[in-house]
Amino acid sequence: MLDCTDPTDRSNAIAAAVRAVEGGSVIVLPTDTLYGVGADAFSPSAVTGVLAAKGRGRDMPVPVLVGSWQTIEGLVSYVTPPTRALIEAFWPGGLTLIVEHAPSLAWDLGDARGTVGIRMPLHPVALELLERTGPMAVSSANRTSMPPATTAQQAYDQLGESVSVYLDGGPVPIGKPSTIVDLTGDVPRLVREGAVTLAQLTEVVGVVETR
């Protein structure tokens, strides 16, 4: 468990996490919504490690965290106007956007059928890490069907030695999952309401399907 609450310790902790990610290992990191368990998004074996740590199958693909707005430009074929509007309104923050990823990307996040869920978290530790690692495949740091972790200790209690490095940034600010919006159809569709409300979404893009 590596402390990220002190600036000096945080620098060393993030450096250790970067080395672990670059080596194909699985780590736990704090985000604004919940703690996440993640790995290099472009390493299929590392992503498999994330799924194994959670006890989760390929039928539930792993979302991707990015460290900047610009990163999404290289991950999708085309950024639609609703996508851009939601990014400008809620990133960094608790909104995951499901989009069609660029066909050229060499990654395997599970049975995603050409789509990917992408989010930019509002957390200094996560953003500093992502700036150095690039996009990471990150899911909530818990075993499937168990409560999501809001502290590093809760994540460790569930995931144990399946994770190489635990970054402890203290309790997360929000403590609820991100909202998920599917932007692969003609109209944005709410998949899960969480940190961002339906009312907030409709203020930005108008109609949002809820079925």
Automatic annotation (TrEMBL):
Protein name: L-threonylcarbamoyladenylate synthase
Lineage, opening ranks: Bacteria, Bacillati, Actinomycetota, Actinomycetes, Jatrophihabitantales
Domain of life: Bacteria
Key words, A-Z: ATP-binding, Cytoplasm, Nucleotide-binding, Nucleotidyltransferase, Transferase, tRNA processing
The family this protein is said to belong to: Belongs to the SUA5 family.
GO terms for MF: L-threonylcarbamoyladenylate synthase
Subcellular location: Cytoplasm
Keyword Nucleotide-binding applies: yes
